[in-house]
Amino acid sequence: MTLDTDCMRYIALFESSTGAVVRDCVVDSENDRLIFVIKQGEMGLAIGKGGENINRVRDMIDKKIEVVEYSDDVCEFICNSFQPVPIKSVKIVEKKKKQLAYVEVLKKDKGLLIGKNGRNIQKAKLLASRHHNIDDILVI
């Protein structure tokens, strides 16, 4: 995983403004957003009281910001990437030399999980691939 200079600048700005440690940064130009993967246990620090930290960074860079808490556990990480959608279960299966994650949600939450134009599932697939070598995420 390599980061370009824009990502490095965004990480420095985010860390200095929030105090949270950033593990990864994704610039999603298509959806006009930045996705930060932060160190486990630092979500509160990243968001700040009443969202003040994250809002300050958003105002400085004029982009939507999404924050995902990292976990070494692939299932927990996938759940974190779909927050605040409640996930019933995540199962990792190997099929034809590919790592697949099956995510189960209530029927009423499927649309929320996928997101407008698939943006939430895209984010989860990208992050799961970058951090845990998951080839695809399937919703059941």
Automatic annotation (TrEMBL):
Please give the family membership noted in the entry: Belongs to the NusA family.
Q: Which residue ranges does the record assign to the K Homology domain?
A: 30-97
* Gene that encodes the chain: nusA
Q: What is this protein called?
A: Probable transcription termination protein NusA
Any single Gene Ontology cellular-component annotation: cytosol
User: What SMART domains does the annotation carry?
Assistant: KH (SM00322)
> Its domain of life?
Archaea
At the highest ranks, the source species' classification is: Archaea, Methanobacteriati, Methanobacteriota, Stenosarchaea group, Methanomicrobia
Q: GO MF annotations for this entry?
A: RNA binding
* Swiss-Prot/TrEMBL GO biological process terms: DNA-templated transcription termination; transcription antitermination
